Amino acid sequence: MTQRTQRIDELLRQEIGQALERDVTDPGLGFATVTKVETAPDLSIARVWVSVIGPAEQRKETLAALRRAMPFIRRGLNSKIRLRRIPELEVRLDDTLERGTRVLRILDELGAGHVPVEIPAVGESLPTPVRRLHLLGDADDALPAIPPPPDEGKPRRRNGPPRGRGTSGERGSGGGRSGRPNGTRRTR
């Protein structure tokens, strides 16, 4: 991915998110957040990754509403972004929150001393807060002192005159490359 496509991806993400907040009034649109945009190198298509909070039915309905709204958003982007061609917008569901919630539940079970059981996907995509037990190595424990790094034997360069300019570090000091006496110039 080039820097140009990265800039375009970020710009598209911001503009699509703002358009969803301001311009789209579809009643089927639930709580959706544009998390990432991936543009093809030829800018023909852009995958819009969207995170939707809610049960599975609401997520499906929101994705359908987003797919219906993408042509409208694409036309609006034409006046906001200066590109020869605005890419086709393809909506994809970003399920990283659900996977993160599953990992948190497994870690909670392991912390409680239980063997994790395969947890079926729950309709909600936000983690439920749980009380955390104090474990060895938490921030409350005293941290051991970190020893200084060993000296590698190289002398460190002190603040002094710049290298390659003689002893005084000034121009025209006679110790430079030209080999001429101090303050003289070459004449033609």
Verbal overview:
32% of the residues lie in helices and 12% in strands. The chain is of the alpha+beta class and 188 residues long. Among the domains are: 3-94, GMP Synthetase, Chain A, domain 3; 96-127, no CATH class. A 3-stranded mixed β-sheet has the order 1-2-3. Helix 1 packs across helix 2 (56-80). The mean pLDDT is 75.
Distance between the termini: 54 Å
CATH topology of one domain: GMP Synthetase, Chain A, domain 3
Major sheet: arrangement of strands: 1-2-3
State the total count of DSSP E strands.
Answer: 3
- Please identify the structural class as seen in this structure: alpha+beta
Quick take:
With 188 residues, the protein is of the alpha+beta class. It has helices at residues 3-22, 56-80, 96-111, and strands at residues 32-39, 45-52, 88-93. Helices cover 32% and strands 12% of the residues.
Please write out the topology.
Blueprint (H helix, E strand, L loop, with lengths): L2 H20 L9 E8 L5 E8 L3 H25 L7 E6 L2 H16 L77
Parallel strand pairs: 2-3
Antiparallel strand pairs: 1-2
Helix pairs in contact: 1-2
Descriptive labels:
single chain; three-stranded mixed beta sheet; alpha+beta; 32% helix; 188 residues; GMP Synthetase, Chain A, domain 3; 3 helices; 3 strands
